[in-house]
Amino acid sequence: MRHPEFEATLAPAKIYPEIWRILLGLLLIVFCYISLSVMVVAIGSAIAAREVGLYGVMPFLQSLQYPTTPWAVVTLLATFSGMALGPILAAAALHFRGPGSLLGPWSEWWRGFVTAGLVVLVILGGLMALGAWIDPPNQGLSFSRWLHFLPLFLPLLFLQIAAEELLFRGYLMQALAARFTARWIWFTLPALVFGLLHWDPEAGRNLPLLLLATFSFGLIAADLTERTGSLGAAMGFHFANNFLALLVVSIDDGITGAALYVSPAGIATEGFNSLAIAFSIVVLFGIWWVIKTLLER
Fold this sequence. Notes:
The protein is mainly α.
């Protein structure tokens, strides 16, 4: 049984629910993502060549895998512009739907975004502060430099999370729900794909825990979307989580170029770090329970 709020948002998607439209839409999204990513990287490479010469292009390209400088992070986040544009174009060209049909009602979107974002910042931010007090992280960017880049980081971070939510909880989840009734197809499958796309061989034996964490994240975002009939709560949940993980305390050998602090433990570090990843999954579901309780009032 679907939540009535989510069922109401499916009305535009049910007009043209054919599978060929969904598959062609996904191809269009992939094309947009790759095309704009190439353009963004090309612009970044041109800037690097101008600043430090042609010999600086290859190090710049290599830095995009695990960005350690602010401009590398800016470039990486900007590559999500194609993923954000793709679902909007696919919905319009193949399903004759506007962007609003993906996002849900504005009032519900805003309420969900603010509620979920604040809950994550309070609970997860508090736990991170406690962890930093017990085991202080290393300094990343200086506070003045971090503030200097923050007006650029924040909108690009929003672009990144909006792109993923528009694709997985917007276009894909809605299109599948309009075509299929089986819950594992429209609810679980997008979350599973979302988790698998975070596959990182550098995680070593922590990889199963990392995939479980991202899969759980996808399930929670899908549940919040279904409960509210809007992407607001999922996007607020996603934005606040990534703000803390990328801009406040990042992990070593990850995306550290925008972080105020860097944890000395890498993603592949076992032992206590493995327990921390497992504990973070429990925390995510605790945060989900608080958010859904507040939104149901």
